[in-house]
Design brief:
Blueprint (H helix, E strand, L loop, with lengths): L10 E3 L7 H6 L9 H5 L13 H4 L11 E17 L2 E22 L6 E15 L2 E9 L5 H8 L15 H9 L5 H12 L3 E3 L16 E3 L8 E24 L3 E23 L7 E26 L4 E8 L3 E18 L2 E7 L7 E3 L3 E4 L3 E10 L3 E11 L4 E3 L4 H13 L2 E14 L2 E10 L10 E11 L3 E17 L8 E18 L1
C-alpha cells in the first residue's frame, strides 16, 4: 500500500480529550519555594508567622509582623536528574535563576484598648511551582514496543475511521477525525499508527482484503531484534505556577491571630517528549521510528485559606490552617509528528506524518480541574528573644482531585483512576532559629513528604540551613536547600506503559532582602 502525503498549514479546534494522571499530579502539587528565612527553617512557619511565605501557609501569620515591610527573593537552583530504564542509567544537569517572591505587609495598630489590637494587610507573589525539568533515558525493552501504543487505540475501531479516505491527505484526515466527537484523540493516535505503517489491519474472516472499511482488528507491523526494542526517550519541560495572594489578618485580645487569604494562580507549562525506537529484526516492516509530542498548557485558578494562631503563653503558639482545593480552568494545545522508515516489497521508504508542520496546532477545549485541599497543624516554641523551634504537620489527599464536569464519560473514567492511583500524603516540617546576637541568626530545617501515589515511591526529603543579618531598617537572609526526590514516569499513558525511574537532587540557594517602612 503506497501512500503519498501533502502537508498544509492548519489551525483548528477539535473536541478531544487528552488529560492524564500526569496532569492531575502536576497541578495538585503545592509549592516548595519561599523566602530565605522560610526555606532555611524547612517551611515550618504555621505557628510562627512574621514572614512573607508564612502567611502563604497560614493567613494568620501576617499579623505577627511588628512593622510595615516589603521584600523580595532571588533563587538559584541547580538540578541533577538520574533516569533509569531497564537497568540503563543516564544523568542530566540544569541551572535556573529567577525571582522567587515579592511581598508587602502593612500593619495597623489600635492603641484604644479594644478587642482587636492589630490588623494587617498583605500581598505576596510567589513562584509556587517551578516546572523546568529535563531528563533522558534509553535502554532495550524486550517486552513491548510503540506498536502497543497505537494498537491500544486502534482495536475495535473501523478502518474507515482511522485512515485517509476520499483522497484526503494526512493533515485533512487528522483534522476531520479530531473534529468528530465520536472519534477524537484516540482515533487520531490510531491514524498515526496505521498511516505510519506501524500497525496493519487483519482482514475479515473469509476475506483476504486488508483494505475493507469495516475491519476492526489490527496487528503489529514491527518485530524486535534479539535484545528487544531499543528506546530513546527525551523529556524537557518549562514553565511555572505563579501564585498571587491577598491577605488580611488581625489579633484579638492579644492571643488569637485570625487570617484569610484569597489566592490566584497563573499556570504556564510546556512539555516536549521525543521518543525513538530502533533495533528491529529483519522481518519487521519498520526499520526506524521517531514519535514527537509537544504539549502546551495555560490556565488560571483560585483558592482560599483560613488560618489561626493561638498564643498559649509567651513561649508556646499553636497554629491551624485550611486550604481549599484550587479550582483551575485550563486549556491545552498539542503538536504531534511521526517519522518512520518502513519497508515493503519495493524496498525501504520514509514516511513523515506531521499535521503540525509550519506551526499548526491542535487546540483542546477548556476544561476544569480541582486540586486537593489540605489542612495543617503547627506548634512553635519561642525562647525569649534567642530562638525558635517549630513543627508543622499537614495532610493532603491527592485522591480527592477531580476533573469536571464529573458526569462527563471521559472525566468519570479519569477520576476513577485518580481515586485508585493516588493517596493521602503527609508532610512533616521542622525548623529552628538561634540568634547569636541582635544582628546575626543561624537557621536549620528539615522537610519530608510521604508518597502521593499508591504504586510509586515519589517521596520527598529536604535539608536546609541559612543565616540572617539584621541591619536595623533592613534584613538580608540567605538559605541553602538540598532537596532529594524520587519518582517515575510512564513512557506513554496507553500501551507502552513501562516506567522510567527518576531520582532528582536540587541545590537551591535563596537570597531575600527585606525593608521596614
Amino acid at each position: 500500500m503506497k501512500k503519498s502525503f501533502f502537508f498544509l498549514l492548519l489551525s483548528f479546534c477539535v473536541q478531544i480529550n487528552a488529560q492524564s494522571l500526569q496532569d492531575a499530579h502536576r497541578y495538585s502539587q503545592n509549592g516548595l519555594e519561599g523566602s530565605a528565612r522560610y526555606t532555611a527553617m524547612g517551611g515550618a512557619f504555621g505557628a510562627v508567622g512574621g514572614d512573607f511565605s508564612a502567611f502563604d501557609i497560614n493567613p494568620a501569620g501576617s499579623s505577627v509582623f511588628a512593622f510595615n515591610e516589603i521584600g523580595g527573593s532571588f533563587n538559584f537552583v541547580s538540578s541533577s536528574n538520574e533516569a533509569t530504564y531497564f537497568n540503563t542509567t543516564a544523568k542530566e544537569q540544569a541551572n535556573d535563576l529567577a525571582i522567587g517572591h515579592l511581598g508587602a505587609v502593612f500593619v495597623l495598630n489600635d492603641e484604644s484598648g479594644g478587642g482587636w489590637s492589630k490588623i494587617s494587610v498583605g500581598f505576596n507573589y510567589n513562584k509556587s511551582v517551578n516546572y523546568d525539568n529535563s531528563f533522558s533515558a534509553q535502554g532495550y525493552n524486550s517486552i513491548r514496543g510503540i506498536d502497543q501504543y497505537f494498537l491500544s487505540f486502534a482495536q475495535g475501531k473501523e478502518l474507515v475511521n482511522i485512515s485517509q479516505i476520499n483522497d484526503e491527505n494526512f493533515n485533512e484526515a487528522y483534522r476531520n477525525i479530531g473534529g468528530d466527537p465520536d472519534l477524537g484523540f484516540p482515533a487520531q493516535q490510531a491514524l498515526f499508527g496505521y498511516e505510519g505503517f506501524v500497525i496493519n489491519p487483519i482482514p475479515l474472516e473469509g476475506s483476504d482484503d486488508p483494505t475493507d472499511d469495516t475491519i476492526r482488528d489490527y496487528r503489529s507491523n514491527t518485530e524486535a531484534g534479539t535484545q528487544g526494542y531499543f528506546h530513546e526517550y527525551v523529556h524537557s519541560s518549562l514553565g511555572q505556577s505563579k501564585r498571587y495572594t491577598i491577605n488580611i489578618s488581625g489579633v484579638f485580645q492579644d492571643k488569637f491571630y485570625l487570617g484569610f487569604n484569597i489566592n490566584h494562580f497563573n499556570i504556564e507549562y510546556s512539555e516536549l517528549v521525543d521518543f525513538s525506537e530502533s533495533n528491529y529484526s529483519s522481518a519487521s516492516g519498520i526499520r526506524d521510528l521517531n514519535f514527537r509530542n509537544e504539549l502546551i498548557t495555560v490556565g488560571r485558578g483560585n483558592s482560599f485559606q483560613l488560618g489561626a494562631i493561638y498564643k498559649l503563653n509567651p513561649q508556646f503558639r499553636l497554629g491551624l490552617s485550611f486550604e481549599s482545593p484550587t479550582y483551575y480552568r485550563l486549556s491545552d494545545r498539542i503538536r504531534q509528528s511521526l517519522v518512520t522508515e518502513a519497508v515493503d516489497e519495493n524496498g525501504a521508504f520514509t514516511l513523515e506524518l506531521d499535521p503540525a508542520e509550519d506551526g499548526s496546532e491542535t487546540f483542546f477545549p477548556e476544561y476544569q480541574f480541582n486540586s486537593a485541599g489540605s489542612v495543617r497543624g503547627s506548634l512553635a516554641y519561642i525562647y525569649k528573644d534567642k530562638g525558635i523551634i517549630s513543627l508543622d504537620y499537614s495532610l493532603r489527599d491527592f485522591s480527592a482531585a477531580q476533573f469536571t464536569p464529573k458526569d462527563d464519560v471521559l472525566f468519570r473514567s479519569l477520576n476513577q483512576q485518580i481515586e485508585g492511583d493516588f493517596q493521602a500524603s503527609q508532610q512533616l516540617q521542622l525548623g529552628a532559629e538561634y540568634r547569636l546576637n541582635p544582628f546575626f541568626s543561624l537557621r536549620a530545617g528539615y522537610w519530608t513528604q510521604s508518597a502521593t501515589k499508591l504504586f510509586v515511591d515519589n517521596s520527598l526529603e529536604i535539608i536546609s540551613g541559612g543565616a540572617g543579618f539584621n541591619f536595623g531598617p533592613s534584613n538580608l537572609d540567605v538559605a541553602l536547600q538540598l532537596r532529594s526526590a524520587t519518582d517515575s514516569q510512564m513512557l506513554f499513558a496507553n500501551g507502552l506503559t513501562d516506567r522510567i525511574g527518576l531520582n532528582r537532587d536540587d541545590f537551591n540557594l535563596v537570597f531575600t532582602y527585606r525593608f521596614k517602612l
